[in-house]
Structure formats: C-alpha cells, structure tokens
Amino acid sequence: MTSSPNPTLQDHRCRHASTREALVLAASLLAILTLLPACGRKPNVPDSDSAGKQNLPFDRQAPANGLSPSRSLVPSATRLPEGTSITVRLRTALSSATAHAGDTFDGVTEDPIAVDGQILVARGADFVGRVLEARRSDGKDRGYLRVALVSIQVSGKTVLLDTSSIFSKAGARDGSGAKDVIFPPDRRLTFHLTKAVDLP
C-alpha cells in the first residue's frame, strides 16, 4: 500500500520556495535601481549644483565699504576732457595798470572739477595763471588784460593746462569811466580746457 505525501512537509517546501523567489526578485530590483543613476549620468560632467556653487571672480561678494570686487578692476577716470570748465578765485588783485605780458598770478579753484559725477580735482586746489596781454591806459585809450591758466596742483604734482583766455577792457561792459581793468582779490574767473589733460 502506497503512502500519501505529508501535507505539512509539502506546504513548508512551497513556502520556502516562494520566500527564496521573493528574495531573488528583491535583490534584482535593488541592483537595477542602483545602476539607473549611473547609467543616466554623463561621464566626467559635474553636477549642475556643484558647478553653480563654484565661486567665480565676478561672483565674490562686495566688501563692507560697498565697492564691488569686479568694479575695483576698472580704473577710475583720470582725464579732464577738452571743454572742461575750471572756475577759480584770485588770491591777489590783478590790474592792467601794473601787469605786464608774461606775469603770473595765482589763486585756488572755486568749485570742484568733476567728470561723469566723479570729483577729480577738489575745491581749493592751487593754480597758476599767466598774463598774455596787458596795456595800461594812457589817458585816451582804456587799459585791457588777457589772462589764461597754465597749471594746477593735483595730488601734490603740477599739471600743465591749456585753457581759453579771458579778455577784459576797462569800461567795455559797464560803461564806467574807469581807465584800467582791475580784478580784485577773490574775483571769480571761469576758463575752459582747450586740450584734454591727464591727471596723476
């Protein structure tokens, strides 16, 4: 008489086979998931996040003084262009009665000299001017003066200038009976550069 298989032993074997198959399937899925990121990434290409985190020279933050590091690489303006106006104030009087061509006079700048909003020459800078023409009144003809600037002091250095000249004849405008031109101390005069000049 043939004996029938043990139901308990057969059920145990079936459950053991199912568990082994489940483990094999789980291991296969884990391996596939692990390989997927590597397959999708291009070789030797850094992540966009890491590339974005690199500090480029122009990405540096500005220091406490508010100046951008990239702007510090750009030289500031150091040239006064042609046509720049220079207003000065005389230190001493100047008169056609005593002045001669070639004489010099001095004083200070009345206003700061700026280019594109940047002050290049401060108010109060010393200047030197020259008398180009002078004639005193002879009693019949009125005296006159022609003057121009020749230099200015910037950062302790003398900068030569080419400027327009100012011509003044006694009584020509106000109709006064004055025979000679007199520029008193503190008289303001405005000249214009006829040639661009580089500053130190």
Protein described:
- By secondary structure, this protein is α+β, with helices and mostly antiparallel strands.
- It has 2 domains: about 1-75; about 80-200, Beta Barrel (Lipocalin).
- About 20% of the residues lie in helices and about 30% in strands.
- It contains 2 helices and 13 strands, in the order H-H-E-E-E-E-E-E-E-E-E-E-E-E-E.
- The strands form 4 sheets. Strands 2, 4, 7, 8, 9, 10 and 12 form a 7-stranded antiparallel β-sheet that branches. A two-stranded antiparallel ribbon has the order 1-13.
- The chain is rod-shaped, with a radius of gyration of 45 Å.
- The chain starts with 6 loop residues before the first helix and ends with a strand.
- Residues about 65-75 have low confidence and may be disordered.
Examine the secondary-structure arrangement and name the CATH architecture of the largest domain: Beta Barrel
Helix content: 10-25%
Name the CATH superfamily assignment of the largest domain. Type IV secretion system, VirB10/TraB/TrbI
Straight-line distance between termini: 123 Å
Spans of at least 5 consecutive residues with low confidence:
67-75
CATH topology name of the largest domain, in short, is Lipocalin
Tally of alpha and pi helices? 2
Topology order in helix (H) and strand (E) letters? HHEEEEEEEEEEEEE
The major beta sheet can be summarized as: 7 strands, antiparallel
Round the mean pLDDT to the nearest integer and report it. Answer: 79
Summing up helix and strand content along with how strands pair, one would put the structural category as alpha+beta
Task: Report the portion of residues in β strands.
Answer: 25-35%
The CATH class designation of the largest domain is Mainly Beta
Q: How many domains make up the coordinates?
A: 2
Q: Got a strand count?
A: 13
Q: Radius of gyration over alpha carbons?
A: 45 Å
Overall shape: it is rod-shaped
